Amino acid sequence: MTAIDERVLELDPEEARRVRQERFERIGRWMLPLAIMILAIWLWDRICVWNAIPQYILPRPGVVLWTLYNDAGLLFSSLLVTLRITFLSLALAVIGGVGLAVLFAQSKWVEMSFFPFAIVLQVTPIVAIFPLINIYVNDQTTKLLLCAWIVAFFPILSNTTLGLNSVDRNLRDMFKLNGATRWQQLRYLRLPAAMPYFLGGLKIAGGLSLIGAVVAEFVAGTTGQSSGLASRIIEAGYRLNAPRLFAALFLISLTGILIFLVLSLISHLILRRWHESALKQER
Amino acid sequence: MIREKVAQAPASDVASTLLALRGVGKVFSNGVTALSDVNLTIREGDFLSLLGPSGCGKSTALRLIAGLSTPTSGVLDWRGGGALDRSNIGFVFQEPTLLPWASVFDNVWLPLRLKGISRAKAAPAVTEMLARVHLTGFEDAVPRELSGGMKMRVSIARAMVTKPRVLLMDEPFAALDEITRFKLNNDLLELWQDERFTVVFVTHSVFESVFLSNRVVVMAARPGRVFDELAIEASYPRDGAFRTSPDYAALCRQASDVLVQAINSTAGAHHDGH
B12 pLDDT band (50/70/90 cuts)? Predict the structure, then answer.
């Protein structure tokens, strides 16, 4: 018998098994991905060494880390450029997405008329639209913003619209009975009810705005004066500077993960008191 | 239709007519006749139960009275100052129907808030109403932290905070366990006796309708209609002792018999129709 069994001696076997399992899951949730990650990095390093792969094809993890440190000035100024586009486009996606959703929610007619266009905009690959944007828009930042916005706004629009329309029927009647105006119904009922949906859309849009910013910069090329991380990657690719390529890639991934974590935290803080998704399971 | 036991108001509260439904019918767009030729007089201060099987149109009748729906035929004649303002009607739904993101206080404040009354100005009324439904101390809780019975109390407090003249209740306690339901029955009666508002209470429970009301209107289905009406001439206040009294049992049997007749009349009509 192990120590764990002793601790749960009073519990019947079924409950004891559950306690053990919960404990393993708690630890496993962090330890397993971490262990796999470390193993993968170690394997990567070993593969480079065993096969004597040259640095310009596959750099060893240590070299990537070293490049990250060495080229920090260059990479971080590029990161800031990419971040600026990402967050600006995310902000615009929130404003545009929520604004349009509220507009759609005002009347079924408006929604029926305009929602299909939003879908068209969403399903057309941004890379295919970009040449047009390139013709019509001069300013580099505006170009990138527009691209990232088109990619990011749809999940917010579609989720918020869904949320605004999924208000409990009885609650709607209750507002009607109390003589609520349209604005009051929106302010006190529909917007709060749409919050979980909006936050779900925001989480998706956060990742998409980063992707949009990077993709836009890729198709825009390195010609402009803006040099975000995508430009660094293209540049490093031309120069066979694989370590820097990896370093830039690492920064983009890290940014994406951070955006997701921050948005998840915001979502949790807003919903934790009342929404099912944010509640701990009690039974 | 059987019309022998037309109800008399208990001698103590002879009151004026508040609302008369005359020949009220409702046909939905899908062709279902929810209500047909309903004639019903609701008097000031009545505790009137609409009792009937599902599909008898009792909830539809309640929605018509609330103004959430309009009748296909017939009229709802509001006495005592023409059409009643909606703020004079409180509505309690089958589910608590609370804002899940708002605290208990904010939920009860809502009807006043919608009338433009600030939190501070509404506070005395909200606090008093919460005390009346025994929820003092739970102001800051959110609905999911409350039990089913407590949620229903919040719902009642919200409906009553505007001091409506009519309280419409649509099977409000149907989802609660019996112990909680008895308790809420008692508390509701207490509230009704203190404030003397009018209640129209939809239920499918014979026992609940007899315990609470001075009038039980039995409805039948297909089409939804008023089948019969019973006066429950037991005096208020009614409490636990009344619940176990032979009088109560006899009244329940009487109501139950009428309900069975109402159900059978439907089965007969249904059978004849085919």
Answer: very low
The contacts found for B254-257 with CB under 8 angstroms, 24 or more apart, are: B254/B230, B255/B51, B255/B206, B255/B209, B255/B210, B255/B216, B255/B218, B255/B230, B256/B206
- The phi and psi torsions of B211 (rounded to 5 degrees) equal -65, -40
| pLDDT digit string, tens, across residues B130-177 | 999 999 999 999 999 999 999 999 999 999 999 998 999 999 998 899
Topology (CATH level 3) of domain A61-278: MetI-like fold (1.10.3720)
**Do B114 and A195 lie within an 8 Å CB cutoff?**
no
Residue of A nearest to B67 (CA): A177
The fourth-level CATH superfamily of domain B1-84+167-274 is: P-loop containing nucleotide triphosphate hydrolases (3.40.50.300)
CB B78 within 8 A of CB B24: no
3-state DSSP call for residue A180? Answer: coil
Average pLDDT across chain A, whole number:
88
A119: its two tokens: 């879908």
Across chain B, what does the average pLDDT equal?
Answer: 86
Residues of chain A in contact with residue B67, where contact means CB-CB under 8 angstroms, are 177
Residue matched to tokens 């990419």: A82
Residue of B nearest to A279 (CA): B144
Average pLDDT over residues B63-85: 80
Q: Which residues of A touch B95 (CB under 8 A)?
A: 170
Domain boundaries defined on chain A:
3-50, 61-278
Radius of gyration of chain A (CA): 25
* Residue B87's pLDDT band (cuts 50, 70, 90): low
**Lowest mean pLDDT, pick from A81-90, B81-90, B118-127:** B81-90
Instruction: Considering only the beta carbons, identify the residue of A170, A176, A189 that sits closest to B93.
Output: A170
Residue B239, pLDDT > 90, answer no
> What is the pTM for the complete model shown?
0.84
